[in-house]
Amino acid sequence: MKLATMRDGSPDGRLLVVSRDLRSALRADAVVMSLREAMETWDQVEAGLQRLADSLNRGDAPDAFALPLRELGPPMPRSWQWLDASAFHSHGDLMERAFRHAPIEGKLTRPLMYQGGSDDFLGPMDDIPMPDEADGIDFEAEVAVVTDRVPMGTPAGDALRHVRLIMLANDASLRSLAMVEMKTGFGWIQAKPATSFSPVAVTPDELGLAWKDGRVHYPVQVYWNERHFGSPDAGAMGFGFHELIAHAAYSRNLSAGTVLGSGTVSNANYREVGSACIAERRAIEIADEGRAVTPYMRYADRVRIEMFDAHGQSIFGAIDQQIVPAPRSRDN
Amino acid sequence: MKLATMRDGSPDGRLLVVSRDLRSALRADAVVMSLREAMETWDQVEAGLQRLADSLNRGDAPDAFALPLRELGPPMPRSWQWLDASAFHSHGDLMERAFRHAPIEGKLTRPLMYQGGSDDFLGPMDDIPMPDEADGIDFEAEVAVVTDRVPMGTPAGDALRHVRLIMLANDASLRSLAMVEMKTGFGWIQAKPATSFSPVAVTPDELGLAWKDGRVHYPVQVYWNERHFGSPDAGAMGFGFHELIAHAAYSRNLSAGTVLGSGTVSNANYREVGSACIAERRAIEIADEGRAVTPYMRYADRVRIEMFDAHGQSIFGAIDQQIVPAPRSRDN
Q1: Whether this model's pTM surpasses 0.90
Q2: In angstroms, rounded to a whole number, what is the distance separating the alpha carbons of residues B221 and B227?
Q3: DSSP conformational letter for A276
Q4: Could you count the other beta carbons within 10 Å of the beta carbon of residue B290?
Q5: Interface subset of B 82-121, CB within 8 angstroms of A
């Protein structure tokens, strides 16, 4: 099934069930109010939500209405945990070469992962407020999963059954600050502003055979100011989501609603398929021409991120956002 | 006022108002159910909670009962964000010397901060489950604050009024994994298991003049297996909490209920006052004798962390915990 969240003034918003073709929706609040609550009570609410989805997809739901795209927040406006990996090896290799830092030890056997803010996610069409154009504003197109509760010590072999939902993410980044923070070893605070998510989160069965080995085997389509920027295949993850989950759960329980990201989608044949973030294109330019030519984003720039199935159907709807200056007011 | 959370089977627990001497308590659920909800509605609930606290401290609350220490969870069993700094320069200096890594650039002008798990905090007397004794199990005694909503771009000069509560933390760490993860630049995932908090969180006014310059000017008392381990003064932070908040809010809003930690309390005269984590003592041994003599924690080891005011009154109650093996079951 496909799920979305309509803004209603509350912090968690109100859950909608969405038709497979993303055209129509049903309110799900008779079953459960919000997707965050649904994640915490999944076994009790899944069947009820599935009945709504089935009725909607059969076209016999009398209360169906057109999906109100402009009123959608992220599927979960906030959650308890956002862990983002860097699971595409071609991306890491390019970044290391461009910025001439030594290869990260063990990166082929231990996933790279940081924890980001999960308290204030952005919706698929929300403006992205940024404090300064000079910070090197970038997008990152990613796949993300939402888990139910994962007990500490869950091995990779048991981890995939904890994946309840899949969605797309735009992990906005401030590249000038990223290198400074990375050198401290502490990870990123300032370089990782709020992350944005696709209109719709889907259960793994919606992907059919394209959900395999803990990976989504479709390209992600990335457009920057309406120009095609890249369409690398998300199936090329060096670690599958089961391995990312097991890595994260080594010494902690993961609460229901934990969101895990793949990191910027990237393919080894990046010259043909393009990239899913500007930093990677700049790294390629540095490798090829000795210097980066492509600038980072400016205010009013837009990014669009979407994924289509084999029939050309948009799976998650589009992330389509604009960069704006953060309000200068001290209490916005 | 002083606040605590009694476990009741719900994820957020039930709020108690606690007397200044930590002996008695009142249920606060007529005002607000949980401390997490109180943080999100502080302006509406503060006066009601204060009336309960006043009545309790005057001794005329008919519904008062003995504080049920064993039933307390952490003041917030879960929250939206946990940001932990390393704000004591003497600690960083010692660690750099011992582990012979190059000084972190800009560390005296930019706070060091990582984001940790906030979905599964531990209570003051909870066992700490750890996957492997060989991981270098350590405690870290810290001061932490809880903020209301801090808008992006809030400057340090405006930040202190967002501090609603203060508490103690035990930021348990796995040192063998910490160095591996730090070298990646991504921060810590496996090396930072669930963080524990003191029985009671207090409003800043409870500290009187000891809350000054965004710092708590009292020593933290640390005991390992009943032996005194250190009592460094928490007032020696190289950055105050207002600077930590402004740093964190540069490119993100901080939701109400955000918890910020000071990092391991540490003083430059560590030879006299001792340390607040084992890694620091080992670093001193390496500096003095060329090798670390003190081992890390073993299963069944205990740590006790407490802070007393000028009259010898425990301010937050004691964190008093035991290290235990994590359950091997795959679904604990």
Answers
A1: yes
A2: 11
A3: S
A4: 7
A5: 83, 86, 104-107, 110, 112-120
